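Trying the structure run again after the queue cleared.
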Amino acid sequence: MVARRERASLFCARGRLDAPVPGRSASPLGATSVTYRCATCRGLHEGLPDVAYRWPDPYFDVPESERSSRVRGDSDTCARDFFIRGVILIPIKETSDHFGVGVWVSQKRENFETYLKNSDMSGIGPFFGWLCNTLPFYESSTWALKTRAHFQGNNQRPLIEIAPCDHPLYLDYSAGVTLERAWQLYHTRERSRGT
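Done. Tokens:
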């Protein structure tokens, strides 16, 4: 179970988060904001970091010794079955900001192949999929919530829409959260990494 929990990483909008940079931010989010360096673009960013999952949960069902021969994948697709990576944007109330959660959703084979052939086009989809990560922010499981992937093109990951339901993730996604709640979600995910 520990390996499953270590699958999450910190990401900024462009890539993996290296580490927070000490110091107080001057951004509109004030003292609750941090400055951090992205490990992908090496740029400094301010604000609430996004979080992301490196793989869909079913990836960890394959024994580690067999993954290199049974799973084909990169930072955007995983062909163990047919998974694509996208971002759920949870609005932060009273701001134009959001808390981004990088997740994996399943796709039927035809949609997965269409995405592979047209990954930089916004004119495909949206495509239905099941959420394939269990988010530790919520007591009730997020596994297999209904979603739709909206493709953006321009080298951006798809935006993931959560289908209407009574799950707390959908409520946060549709109504937004306070900045305090967004930081709570972030820190809940961070605490879960060490267990």
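Confidence is low (pLDDT under 50) at residues 1-32. Worth checking whether this holds up in the mutant runs.
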